Backbone:
């Protein structure tokens, strides 16, 4: 979503609802969004209208004086939107929906602990909990706004769903999407064992800026080869986002141009709408002026310098494979032959290992060990091309999904050592 001061609230609401619905995070009749504009008027989605076919003409406006403009009725949940805006003057966008995994948490009365990953905690913060009341009632409005009045931006509703709020609807969406991602990760990790969470000290350690040696610079004309790689990166980034391998605010793609130069995704920009011009060119310790440099630039630079055969690197938090990293469970990729051929053994590192000893990690991620996991951190894949690194990310996620399902069906029976030896010989894999 790319909005500016010329984008009408109607169009913002339609775009965000379309994204929520297409991702399976709400139903035809479920969910509601609103925006409070500078005049104090509230723009809100309508009651009883198909969320899958919502148009700008369906959006309702509740004026500051209480009068209603539009051809439908405002959402039946209008009272809690009104209450939140009244008690939180910093809030200008509110989102409410019923994604299945978050509903399971709300039914169980369990608030997701966002400290499962640094990015989740940084985006969502702590999550509040509002007791049940009849949908659309003044009581529900009081229950929810009471929790928001305590300073929360994300609130789980008992037997109902979730509400997020922020200074813009786009920021509220990022909180919502990240919390749902976090909940799915926690649920899958719980099927493997104990879910492990990060401490505040660990989260602060992760937040430190390690790109301080980099400086902005100006670059000459971009070659056709570079432009083609920019295009290919964006195509695969958009695909990965649609497949829910990461959220709109995380996931790092990179491809090497030569011994010193590489392209990398920018920090914080929406992955679903990245353009080739948004990507950042890095030349040793210089990067394109005016662009937000990825927090992983220093890490990728070290790997590229250490592993000349590695041409591409991808960081993701794909929720099935990361469930192993959160449960501190060994991920066995010997699910099917393709899994082992593409992934090999998948070494696992402690959280923050690449900060403590980057050379050690850079010496492992290689054509021999093309995939690694960092506990409560990320999945890192590499390849001799961007597509190969991407393929490994997908194969890791699909293999983890199959392995977790196998555990619930009576246990996994991996390919045995003798069969692995046959694969190594047949496909001439590195030893």
Residues:
């Amino acid at each position: 979503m790319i909005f500016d001061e010329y984008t009408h609230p109607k169009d913002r609401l339609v775009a965000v609802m379309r994204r929520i619905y297409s991702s399976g995070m709400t139903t035809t009749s479920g969910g509601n969004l609103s925006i409070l504009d500078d005049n104090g008027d509230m723009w809100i989605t309508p009651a009883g209208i198909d969320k899958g076919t919502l148009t700008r003409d369906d959006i309702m406006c509740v004026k500051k004086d209480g009068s209603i403009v539009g051809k439908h009725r405002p959402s039946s949940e209008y009272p809690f939107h009104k209450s939140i805006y009244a008690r939180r003057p910093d809030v200008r966008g509110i989102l409410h929906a019923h994604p299945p995994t978050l509903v399971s948490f709300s039914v169980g009365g369990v608030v997701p602990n966002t400290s499962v990953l640094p990015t989740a905690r940084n985006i969502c913060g702590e999550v509040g909990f509002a007791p049940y009341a009849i949908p659309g009632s003044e009581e529900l409005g009081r229950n929810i706004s009471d929790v928001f009045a305590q300073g929360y931006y994300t609130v789980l509703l008992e037997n109902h769903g979730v509400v997020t709020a922020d200074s813009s609807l786009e920021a509220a969406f990022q909180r919502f999407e990240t919390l749902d991602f976090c909940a799915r990760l926690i649920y899958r990790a719980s099927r493997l064992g104990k879910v492990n969470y990060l401490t505040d000290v660990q989260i602060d350690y992760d937040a430190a800026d390690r790109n301080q040696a980099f400086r902005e610079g100006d670059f000459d004309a971009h070659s056709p080869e570079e432009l083609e790689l920019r295009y290919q990166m964006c195509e695969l980034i958009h695909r990965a986002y649609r497949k829910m391998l990461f959220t709109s605010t995380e996931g790092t793609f990179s491809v090497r141009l030569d011994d010193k130069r590489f392209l990398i995704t920018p920090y914080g920009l929406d992955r679903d709408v990245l353009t080739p011009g948004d990507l950042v060119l890095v030349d040793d310790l210089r990067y394109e002026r005016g662009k937000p440099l990825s927090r992983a630039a220093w890490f990728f630079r070290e790997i590229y310098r250490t592993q000349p055969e590695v041409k591409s690197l991808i960081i993701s938090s794909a929720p099935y494979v990361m469930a192993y990293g959160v449960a501190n469970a060994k991920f066995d990729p010997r699910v099917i032959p393709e899994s082992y051929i593409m992934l090999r053994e998948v070494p696992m590192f402690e959280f923050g290992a690449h900060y403590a000893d980057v050379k050690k990690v850079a010496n492992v991620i290689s054509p021999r060990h093309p995939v690694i996991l960092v506990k409560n951190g990320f999945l890192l894949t590499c390849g001799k091309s961007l597509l190969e690194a991407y393929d490994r990310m997908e194969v890791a996620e699909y293999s983890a999904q199959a392995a977790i399902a196998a555990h619930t069906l009576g246990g996994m029976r991996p390919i045995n050592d003798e069969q692995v030896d046959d694969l190594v010989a047949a496909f001439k894999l590195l030893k």
Notes: The first strand starts at residue 32 and ends at 36. The CA atoms of residues 45 and 59 lie 5 Å apart.
